[in-house]
Write a structure and sequence with these properties.
Elements: H1 2-17, E1 26-27, E2 48-53, E3 59-62, H2 63-67, E4 72-79, E5 84-95, H3 96-100, E6 111-116, E7 121-125, H4 126-129, E8 135-140, E9 143-144, E10 154-156, E11 169-175, H5 182-185
Parallel strand pairs: 1-5, 2-11
Antiparallel strand pairs: 2-3, 4-5, 5-8, 6-7, 6-11, 8-9, 8-10
Length: about 200
């Protein structure tokens, strides 16, 4: 464990020296817990994943059906709007493109409103989700996600600030226009690019 910690620190120094840390960010080995509201309870018998909006047909999967989709592993950095970053997170789950292959969109669908437990939402342009590194994660660094970090399912969008990596995801809504999600309605930037420090709507 000590060797693994030292190896991670060396990788962090190397990546930082290569300019891979966005401006205004500080590195951490920890993974802080940040969210609004309480931690939802997960019931695999009632949980479902719904896809709606600008589609030829609506989709709904049970937990068993969603969890049976092909799995991938991805490694990516994680940048929180509160100014901490964590390099080289290992994720396991279902690639966004795996889900997208099963969706029949209508012409004009260009944005996605991500729906999560307790009415939480976040908006992401479709091209920012249709990327190799974007996935619905069930595991982090070899372990199942903890409830506080989004168990059973968390969207991971590594190139945007982490509030777009929505915890406790329950579905997607495809739209032909951009609409603000929860944090965007409360002053956060509509896009959230860490490299341009797009933290708040006034920036």
């Amino acid at each position: 464990m000590l060797f693994e910690g030292n190896e991670r620190r060396e990788r962090e120094k190397r990546k930082k020296s290569q300019g891979l840390l966005p401006p205004g960010q500080s590195l951490t080995l920890k993974w802080p817990v940040l969210h609004s509201g309480s931690v939802p309870r997960f019931d695999p018998d009632t949980w479902d994943f719904r896809i709606r909006g600008q589609l030829e047909e609506l989709l709904r999967w049970t937990w068993q059906e969603f969890n049976s989709l092909p799995k991938v592993e991805r490694t990516s950095d994680f940048h929180c709007v509160t100014r901490w970053s964590r390099f080289d997170n290992r994720w396991e789950g279902v690639a966004f493109r795996e889900v997208l292959r099963r969706v029949r969109m209508k012409p004009g669908a260009a944005y996605v409103l991500v729906h999560a437990e307790q009415g939480f939402t976040a908006n992401v342009p479709l091209p920012d989700l249709d990327r190799e590194e974007v996935l619905f994660a069930t595991h982090h660094d070899g372990q199942p996600l903890s409830p506080e970090h989004g168990y059973p399912l968390r969207l991971i969008v590594p190139h945007l600030y982490a509030w777009k990596s929505v915890k406790w995801v329950r579905g997607l809504e495809f739209l032909d226009h951009d609409v603000p999600g929860f944090w965007e309605q409360n002053g956060y930037h509509m896009y959230g690019d860490p490299w341009n420090e797009q933290r708040f709507s006034r920036e």
